[in-house]
Write a structure and sequence with these properties.
homodimer, alpha+beta, 60s Ribosomal Protein L30, Chain: A, Phosphoribosyl-aminoimidazole Synthetase, Chain A, domain 2, seven-stranded mixed sheet, five-stranded mixed sheet, 8 helices, 14 strands, 30% helix, 23% strand
């Protein structure tokens, strides 16, 4: 363990002055890494916008720009693989600002000795996912690291798209009165990855929900351009996303616990493993904060779309307890839903 | 070794059906991976454009979009570190299409146990390099992999910028009669990294040339918008870049070997190590194919810029031996300068 006296980063949640798995978990440790290390180093305000993608003025357009690294283990899991996950993840980050992904880049870090047939299978999955999402993989790069470093394949995708006229979707726009909607059942991706990693079986196969959400968002924008917030609850799950929105907007969120659609196999697996489904990652779901007057119509449009067939109202945005997420439990009580510190399930994306 | 009978990729240069270090070297193996695996998988024509960045029609603009993964070892070397290298590399890829980098994304893959002070030092180097290049780091992501995987820090940068009106710079535009110019001495980056990795000393410290080239390109475009080709000779060095341009344009290139500026310490180190400086990576140099009528003025503008002070004419583009690069040697003979198969120096960027 390094000497704490040489420590220079003011990171209050640290165990020690080193990177821990939780720094990649999308929770409080990740947020701290951004706020204490990266944002000061890069010296700009855009990073602190906290959206899934940055909205940038460029050539008279509003460009949405996003990047994500993927280190999921194993590379292949029920419902998908690192390739389609990497395409859908970046497509979805762009969609969460209302942008339709236009072009993707794709950078591979391959481990020496990885079978080329595996690389090809992942690349083909990326191609199929890109075609399904209507996005073009336009540029890429490949580096190779020595055997024993890396894990076969890491891939980083970045994406660009245009934000439509009149659309302004970001976490800061949540308002008391907004209806909180989720587009479908939660917890599938994290449990699917964990089940193959640990060799667990839960009676029925649980498949990842990985899917592109650009079409669903377009359908929702067809009802109203005045969607306030969209967020795909990936690392840290629904709980992390709602906490980030509450913090960014200075509003409170009340979650009706029994309204959250948790498939029975996910609930069983989470019970067995001691996980809370609210904190488990999803890769094909979104949370929307919708002005109350549009909520019914938006919900109907979502349910008419294949990616939103299981859409449900799960809560509302309130003026009370600003920055805090509170769940109404099945038993009629309430509990605070915290931002997770790290990640219950490391390396699920 | 996997069974060759399960092999499905038609990669004629393979040693076996697995990834080798040369697949990340920027030479023939890299090109084969793109043409045989990635391009068919992604199913589009843009990837085959072979430029350092893709030029994409978006919202009435021409967007330049590029990505690069960085896996250099060690993380810090004379003249720079993985952080400024990653910023400059992507800034330069955009500059090679004439675009000025506007925004960057930055995705880290950190190894559990890496000192946060090291992460901070790399992030600060990125911030300084971005400020120097006039580009904004607008979005990012961080993942953490288990100790023993990864190598401390891998980083992938992507960048966007606009191609100015009237500019059309790409490898296909090389024409017989073009003058081939290099912006300064070659071989510094590769030798600098190798020297610290292997603990070698060559009498004088050799520092990487890592630098942003957007300003130099803007100065060149100030002379004429009709630059034909720009290329930064990174992996595979000057030899790989000239071969790619010759192949893409169907022209021949004649290189005057003694005109290539090779600093004496680089020449000595290469002699000692059995390397050819033409194949060693540079990270702050460009090669330009300039119409003969503009060559003197472009060369003067380059020499007036800090990044082009050592600019020199190193050859010309010819109609003979299409697709081939031929060097006139110091002894008056000629030799073919081939595309390298892999990389003499793995993991230098």
């Amino acid at each position: 363990m390094p000497d704490p006296s040489v420590w220079s980063c003011p990171a209050p949640l640290r165990d020690g002055p080193v990177v821990v798995l939780g720094h990649g978990g999308g929770g409080a440790l990740s947020a701290e890494l951004v706020s204490e290390v990266f944002a000061p180093a890069y010296g700009n305000e855009i990073l602190s916008g906290l959206g899934d993608s940055a909205i940038l003025p460029l050539g008279g357009t509003r460009l949405a720009f996003s990047t994500d690294a993927y280190v999921v283990r194993p590379l292949f899991f029920p419902g998908g693989c690192i390739g389609d996950l990497a395409v859908n993840g970046t497509v979805n980050d762009l969609a969460m600002s209302g942008a339709r992904a236009a072009f993707l880049s794709c950078a591979f870090i391959l481990e020496e000795g990885t079978e080329l047939a595996v690389v090809e299978r992942v690349a083909r999955a990326m191609g199929s996912a890109a075609a399904a999402a209507g996005v073009v993989v336009a540029t890429g790069d490949t580096k190779v690291v020595d055997a024993g470093h890396g894990d076969g394949i890491y891939v980083t995708t970045s994406g660009v798209g245009l934000v439509p006229e009149g659309v302004d979707i970001r976490p800061q726009r949540a308002r008391p009165g907004d209806v909180v909607v989720v587009s479908g059942p939660v917890g599938l991706h994290g449990v699917a990855v964990l089940s193959v990693r640990e060799g667990l079986e839960f009676g029925v196969e649980i498949a990842s929900d990985t899917a592109p959400l650009g079409g669903l968002v377009a359908a929702m924008l067809g009802v109203t351009r005045d969607l306030h917030v969209l967020r795909d609850p990936t690392r840290g799950g629904v709980a992390a996303s709602l906490n980030e929105i509450a913090a960014a907007s200075g509003t409170g969120v009340v979650l009706t616990e029994e309204a959250v659609p948790v498939p029975e196999p996910v609930a069983n697996a989470c019970g067995f493993l001691g996980l809370d489904p609210l904190y488990v990652a999803n890769e094909g779901r979104l949370i929307a904060f919708v002005p109350r007057e549009h909520a019914d119509a938006v919900l109907a449009a979502m349910r008419a779309h294949p990616q939103g067939a299981g859409a449900a109202v799960i809560g509302e945005c309130v003026a009370e307890h600003p920055g805090m997420v509170v769940a109404r439990t099945r038993l009629g009580g309430t509990r605070v839903v915290d931002l997770p510190v790290g990640e219950q399930l490391p390396r699920i994306c």
